[in-house]
Amino acid sequence: MSLLGPQLSRSFQSASPPPDDDHDLGRFGARMGFARNEEIYAQDEEADLFYRVVSGVVRTTHLTSDGRRHIGDFYYAGDVFGLDAGKTHRFSAEALTDCVVLVVRRAAVGRAADTDIALQRLIWTATCRELERTQAHLMLLGRRSACEKVASFLLEAANRAGGDLVTLPMGRQDMADYLGLTIETVSRMVTQLQSEGVVRFLDCRSFKVIRRPALEAMLA
């Protein structure tokens, strides 16, 4: 029987060995495939599991009582998500693209971490990274202009891509909901950055950084 229970066994690829950087967590979980836009876990669902992206991209979202959507973050291969401090998830998680996720039961890891120093370090590092991401997002939302927010988003995407030619996995509405802007404002800021020769969009999701120093200077 699957470590995570029969309700999650339908898509697990537990027979497949985890990648090298998942060898510690792989002992306590299994891989599961999700199609684009498929829910991984729901807002307010019990947080007895956490997750690591093996391939693809995941987004976390929170719906307010009046129906507004806030995006918490985007997670790429190697990122850990779902490490909520409380008993339930404040955000839901969805596959932004087709993806494979390592799903891990928290209780099993917690018991093993009592004596496994390497596992303690892995969980501590993942928790600290999540805190850093949350703090950076709060600063972005609270202390940046609309143009700076979009510039920061594009620069981070370029840094993740490892170069100046980038294909975004998310659309403009996702960008807007992450940055706390309207989609119209995001589009205006993209147009402004293009007119200043900082970036050039090749289509709605692909762009090239033309003047990286200028992009970085906006965020200094």
Task: Give the count of helical stretches.
Answer: 6
Strand line-up of the largest beta sheet = 1-8-3-6
Topology pattern, helix = H, strand = E: EEEEEEEEHHHEHHEEH
The level 1 CATH classification of the largest domain is Mainly Beta
Secondary structural class: alpha+beta
What distance separates the N and C termini?
53 Å
Estimate the strand proportion.
Answer: 15-25%
Mean pLDDT score:
85
Q: Write down the overall geometry.
A: elongated
CATH level 4 superfamily of the largest domain: Jelly Rolls
Structure summarized in a few sentences:
It contains six helices and eleven strands. With 220 residues, it is an alpha+beta fold.
Note down, in words, how this protein is organized.
There is one protein chain. This protein has 220 residues and is α+β, with helices and mostly antiparallel strands. It has 2 domains: 6-142, Jelly Rolls (Sandwich), CATH 2.60.120.10; 144-217, Orthogonal Bundle (Arc Repressor Mutant, subunit A). It contains 6 helices and 11 strands. It has helices at residues 106-113, 117-143, 146-161, 172-179, 183-195, 212-217, and strands spanning 29-34, 39-41, 49-55, 58-63, 69-75, 80-81, 92-95, 99-105, 165-167, 199-201, 206-209. The strands form 3 sheets. A 4-stranded antiparallel sheet has the order 1-8-3-6. The protein has a 4-stranded antiparallel sheet with strand order 2-7-4-5. The protein has a 3-stranded antiparallel sheet with strand order 9-11-10. A hairpin with a 5-residue loop joins strand 4 and strand 5 (69-75). The radius of gyration is 19 Å and the shape is elongated. The protein starts with 28 loop residues before the first strand and ends with a helix.
